[in-house]
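User: Can you predict the 3D structure of DUF2809 domain-containing protein? Sequence below.
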Amino acid sequence: MPRLPVLLAAVLTVAAGLGVRALTGGAFAKYAGDALYTVLIYALVVLAAPRVRPVMAALVTAGLSWVIEFAQLAEIPPVLRPVLGSTFNPPDLLWYAVGAAAAWAVHAYALGRIHQDRPDRG
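Assistant: Sure. Here are the predicted structure tokens for DUF2809 domain-containing protein:
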């Protein structure tokens, strides 16, 4: 996957997360933020490994998000709390899976479009 579109997706994901927090509130903002947090991690995984298959990126991303959430059962250092959070919340696990699935769907679609646009080499 070319890095520039992935980098753009990461920037747009951060903007969407900030927009959701600024324009909405309550449970919607919290859980949309959780899903978008995972979408950002997905983009970072694809930036680090551009040839990763979408399903593997989704599994790694969901796994990382879940590890971070379960780490909140222990004491998170105050300096890391803005990024990693501080309170374990079981529903977050679902929303991380939703974010990973959404990112997987977009990534798989984009790869399909890239392969579709390539001329046959046969």
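The chain has a mean pLDDT of 92. The helical segments are 3-23, 26-48, 54-71, 81-84, 90-117.
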